[in-house]
Amino acid sequence: WESAWDSGDNKEEEVEEETTGQSGPWLQDCVVAMSPCSDLLVVAREQKAVFLSAKWRSNDSGREEMTLAVSWTGTLSTDEGECVSSSVCIPLASQKRSSTGRPDWTCVVVGFTSGYVRFYTENGVLLLAQLLHEDPVLRLKCRTYEIPRHPGVTEQHEELSILYPAALVTIDGFSLFQSLRACRNQVARAAAAGSDVIQPPPLAYKKWGLQDMDTIVDHSSVGIMTLCVFDQMKNASILGGFNASVKGSPPAMSQYVTVGGGPYTGFYYAVEGSSQPLLSHVALAVASKLTSALFNAASGWLGWNKNKNEEEAVQKQKPKVEPATPLGIRFGLPDSRRHGESICLSPCNTLAGVTDDFGRVSLLDLARGISIRMWKGYRDAQLGWLQVPEERGDREFSPSASLPRRHALFLVIYAPRRGILEVWAMQQGPRVGAFTVGKHCRLLYAGYRLMGVNSVTSQGWQLHTQQVCLLDPITGALRTVNIPFHLALSDKKSERAKDMHLLKRLTTILRNILESEAKSVLLDIKHPAIKKQPSLSDKQPRLAREKCDVCMCFCITDPEEVDTALLQLCSSQLKMLQLYSDIQQLHSAADIEAILCSCVSFAGNFMFWGCLCGNSPLHKVCDTLQEAGISPQQLLSLLLSVWLQREKEMLQKPGETVRNLHTLLIALSNMKGAVEESWDTQSISPWWQQVRHTCIQSHNSAAALLAAFVAHRAAKASITSRADSKKIPVYLPRLLSLQSEWEAVSLELEQWVVFVRQLEDVLVLQTLLLVPPPQGSGGGAAAQCSIKTLMEGGTGGIADSVSKWVFRHNLSPERLKEILQKREDKEAEDKLEQKAGEEGKEQEEKTLIKMLLTNVEMRFPHSLSPDLLFAHCCWEYVVQWNKDPEESRYLSWAVEHLKLVSSPHIQLGISTMMWSTFIVKRLSAAAFLMEKVGKSPKDRLCRRDVGMGDKAATYFLGCCVQLLQILMEADSAVEEVPAPELSVEEAWFGAEGPASIAELALEQRGVHYPLVQHHCLLASLLHSAMTFSLKVKPLSLFDSKGKNAFFRDLTTIQLMPSGDMDPGLISLRQEFLLRVLTAWVQAIDDSSGTSPPPLPSSGPKADWWPSMCLELGSLLQVNPDILRRHLVCELYNQGLDPRAEEVMLEVEDKDVLGSQLLVLTGQRLSYSLLHSQSQTQAAMELLARLPPTLCTWLKAMDPGELRCPLVPLPQTSRLVGRLIEILPENHAQYSLALHLLEAVEALTTED
After folding, report:
1. Distance CA 761, CA 1066 (A)
2. Does residue 913 contact residue 995 with C-beta atoms inside 8 Å?
3. Which of 16, 294, 525, 1094 would suit a FRET pair with 430, their CA atoms being 20 to 30 Å apart?
4. What is the DSSP letter of 274?
5. DSSP output for 1175-1216
6. In angstroms, rounded to a whole number, what is the distance separating the alpha carbons of residues 775 and 841?
7. Is 1047 in contact with 924 (CB distance < 8 Å)?
8. What is the pLDDT of residue 43?
9. Residues with Cβ < 8 Å from 1180, sequence gap 6 or more?
10. Crossing angle, helix 866-883 and helix 813-820, to 10 degrees?
């Protein structure tokens, strides 16, 4: 410390030579600031400063210790005559995800008498300079984020506050954090390569002109507060009089408290949302060896200035200073003779300590605005606060252990005139500590932590910050103040503090094994919970600790002096330590080390693992355990826990470990108190029930099954031996020869048979569930199963587990159906055989999955019946789709699984549940959105209202149509088929838990068929509009009754549209359906020849669109023949003649169709003869030979209406032939058709 201030060869250290010569309190003349992380200390005086950073070094004795060494010295002021007046060190949080709470770097903020505030790095590099007010900076203070300890507490924002003699500036912490990071990055880039300057976000700040106070010397920014309604009404009455109006909700206000004179303390309130100036002119200087720049918000960031003269000119030019917004004082504490000197805000923002020139320290209640306590005799006092959380050990014995941890608040007062540091409990508590220190120290209290922290990024962080430190310039020591929580408790609890002190003393005595002293100290401890701590303080069975505990037990020689519980505890511990020594001698040293290092459950592994591996004498260990007095039930519990926990190691040598387990189990069963002597073999034994109870809860099913086999055999042998020991009645002499062939039947053995069957089932199921899914598939980790989880999962627990497995493995519904039906698609097998060389591994995995799933189905024929499994798979997929609606395949597969359910009752119930739980809300949102925009909405609107993109929404609407169709079909079939009876396997009777999906489905009420059909109609219209991007207002296609019936509960009877519909509505519906057909024809434009290729089963080219439109037409009272004629014309228009001929057969009104096709034929011929670019001379001659009426008619045709005018002549000839067939001879245009036929034939002949 002294080396940093004494004179030396280093010129940079000569700046402090004047101060080292002083014998007085030189530190009191300096501005001192310390980072709350204790890693940076700033000492400044006038224009110069020293930065000291934390470093590790070895002291004289070789121990590593933390020291503060000089890292930078230099001059901070740039303007003539300005001096440092205030400083703070703000650690900035790291933005890396791996951060654990250490700061990324620390920014040094310095205020000057010129009004400038400058920001520096730890190395003295200037980042940012601001002139916010042309008065000296009096005080800099910072507030950082703190997690609210109680619900309802307002979350405070981070900020930096700067106090001037008549103004207060607050800079938003988030904006400052981003700007400082940007400036630091810019400096680093400039130092490396001189790249362009990047503009950081503008700083947001508020500037208040503090009025109605004579002098202000210090301040505290308390933060945002909201008044209760009573206080709001009181203030309104005081400020506005009797007739003042009160707003409905109290406004949020920022509270500022100032100290000084006239009044002695002032309270200011700024309503949030009021006018605030932005930082429009900020001088930014980037000082490095390469360059510097000026930031001005009006003109943006300037480039790197290469001209030194320009640089100096810019620096001399002071930026414009914004005027302050006037802020009147709300109230104050008037005391004309008293002048405040400093104010220190508590961490909880409710209290503040104030010092004054009368040598008093006052405690303010900031919420009420009153002084609640005063200390006298503390001239030039320095204040700090300590907030101490309750120790976890104390919490365990507290009656309020379930409530959040309590925090104690202490005020630290340093009185330099008396050289004493005192700690006082708040608010009216006593002095809990006093320390004699030097008279020239500085109490350093930051009052903040890391900047840039929020509720999300601070999760799991351990913020290493010191609250209060004392700096002694004489010794160079930096001491921290730590106070135990129990000092804040009342006098009744002071015994506990004494007991804690005695406990520490006793621990020291036991290490030195001083029996007489240990006894006296132990008897002095009053609290029973603390009495037990010496014996429980070290749970690791080390020999050194063992001697101390044994010594402690022996030191209690007079039972009358201690309570019985403590004596019993010591006696039990002594037995346990003796047992440890005995078993340790039986085990080999290598086993002991392995057990100590690797096992979680020490006791069980220590006692039994060596025996299970065959490395220790089994009977000697059992005899030793029996002599120790441990109950057989506890030993059995330890043995089974070891066996089940170390399943993998046990399965490496199953034969040997199973034999040893059997031997141990028999030995424990033969111990006194294991199996009751009075046990009747026809009842259940508590001993063997304990084995079953332990294995029931285990997820390690292989180890549990082996343990069950062993225990079953041991129980059977025990029952047989008891049966043999009983006397045979005289009247059954013939059974004597057959006795060896008889097997004793009992309730206990029946329990074992059922239990082993359950474990076998669980093992087969768990083997399936643990098969790893293919890479890239979702679904999370595999579910662990045990008898307990399956029994608690209810009747559908097994199907639910398998359905989650199906989802994780991305198993398609068709593939699952094939496996359940125990047959494979022959073609698929042939294809797989062809690719056996390339995809052998994939084929093996599929075969393995099929085999395992088949085995599980055989074990659970009822719980995994196809209908039950398909139902659970359907529900699992729709749940996963609801989590991520963009995954349309999930919903599609959910519907496919639902189709595979054979029972209409289950289908009906699941469809209803899916509709009401997941579908109807999104469908209604899509309908109202399309009604609002009048067309198929864009991606952004779909995401906002429906919760998915436009493509996913189209897919969703298609699935809605399928779901409602399944619902209608199931409702129609319910009356014809009886409801299925659901059952479970005999071994799994008694399962308790939620009902299966199938059971819930069977409980659903029936639906109203017309209402379902009504919704299916709407979903089809929405799907059509989204698929083909058509303009439509779907709800406007229905009357008021139809609109009101939408999105009602499907089980209710609604008033549906009936009778003839309004012709205007029918016209709108017809126009929409015609546009759908036109869009479909345009989508399937396949330029096919005589035989059109097959169409896909989904999407805009699907082959079912025309039939769907015809169905919709019949439901919407649109003449289906109009739709068919339009479809025929559109297909011919597109040049799809073969498809048009298929549809033409279903048209009823041939006359009208003939007239329409006549025009279309004329357009084709007109294009060939008059508009084609490749007109031949023969065509021109043919045109001349045509009858004048036909020639005039062809010229009147407009081939531009044809989407595909270039059609082969044979197709047109075939079309004219069809025209002659469908037009009657008495038709007005029949002769025109004949002329057309002649013209086409002539043209064909010419070609």
Report:
1. 62
2. no
3. 525
4. S
5. --HHHHHHHHHS-HHHHHHHHH--GGG-S-----HHHHHHHH
6. 14
7. yes
8. 94
9. none
10. 160
CB distance 936 to 945 below 8 Å: no
| Distance from C-alpha of 424 to C-alpha of 362, rounded to nearest angstrom | 13
Upstream peptide bond of 866 is cis (omega within 30 degrees of 0): no
Rounded distance, CA 525 to CA 503, Å? 8
Phi and psi at residue 566, in whole multiples of 5°?
Answer: -65, -40
- How many angstroms separate the CA atoms of 1122 and 1133, rounded? 16
Angle CA(581)–CA(641)–CA(682) in degrees, nearest 5?
110
Q: How far is CA 330 from CA 269, 327, 425, 884, in A?
A: 7, 9, 30, 53
pTM of the model: 0.58
Residue 212: Cβ within 10 Å count: 15
Residue 270 identity: A
**Closest among 658, 711, 650 to 685, alpha carbons compared:** 711
Confidence bin at 522 (pLDDT 50/70/90):
low
- Which ranges in 835-934 belong to alpha helices (H)? 840-859, 866-883, 888-900, 904-914, 920-933
The 10 Å Cβ neighbour count of residue 316 is 8
| Sequence-ordered list of residues with C-beta below 8 angstroms from that of 1155, at least 6 positions apart, any chain | 1229
* Cβ atoms 340, 260 nearer than 8 A: yes
Closest CA relative to residue 779, chosen from 917, 919, 881: 881
First and final CA of the chain: distance in angstroms? 110
825: phi then psi, degrees, rounded to nearest 5: -70, 120
| Contact of 407 with 387, CB cutoff 8 Å | yes
Lowest mean pLDDT among 596-610, 739-753, 1213-1227: 596-610
Write the single-letter amino acid at 82. E
Length of the chain: 1247
Please write the tens of the pLDDT for every residue from 939-984. Answer: 999 999 999 999 999 999 999 999 999 999 999 999 999 999 999 9
Contact 1020, 1112 (CB under 8 A): yes
Bridge-based pairing state of the strands 126-131 and 116-120: antiparallel
How many whole angstroms separate alpha carbon 34 and alpha carbon 41? 4
d(CA 464, CA 920): 52
Distance of CA 380 to the CA centre of its chain: 51
How far apart are alpha carbons 1146 and 494 in whole angstroms?
100
Classify residue 543 by burial, with Cβ atoms within 10 Å: 0-12, 13-18, 19+: exposed
Residue 1067 sits at φ, ψ, to 5 deg, of -65, -45
- 3-state SS, one letter per residue, for 131-151: ECCCCCCCEEEEECCCCCCCC
Residue 871 exposed, middle or buried by CB count within 10 Å (0-12, 13-18, 19+): buried
Which residues are 215's β-sheet partners?
261
Dist. CA 1110–CA 601, nearest whole Å: 72
Q: Please state, in angstroms and rounded to a whole number, the distance separating the CA atoms of residues 1177 and 208.
A: 94
For 243, the token pair is: 């007739």
Q: Which helix (H) or strand (E) holds 572?
A: helix 564-586
Tell me: the pLDDT tens digits for 772-828? 887 766 656 667 789 999 989 888 999 999 999 999 999 999 999 988 886 444 445
> Tell me, what DSSP letter sits at residue 987?
G
Query: Exposed, middle or buried: residue 456 (CB in 10 Å: 0-12, 13-18, 19+)?
Result: exposed
Would you list the DSSP string of 500-544? HHHHHHHHHHHHTT-HHHHHHHHHH---HHHHTHHHHS--S--HH
Residues 6+ apart with CB under 8 A from 471: 27, 32, 34, 41, 441, 442, 444, 477, 478
pLDDT above 60: residue 16: no
Alpha-carbon span 428 to 836, nearest angstrom: 85
Q: Are 285 and 294 in contact (CB under 8 A)?
A: yes
Query: What percent of the chain is modeled with pLDDT above 70?
Result: 77
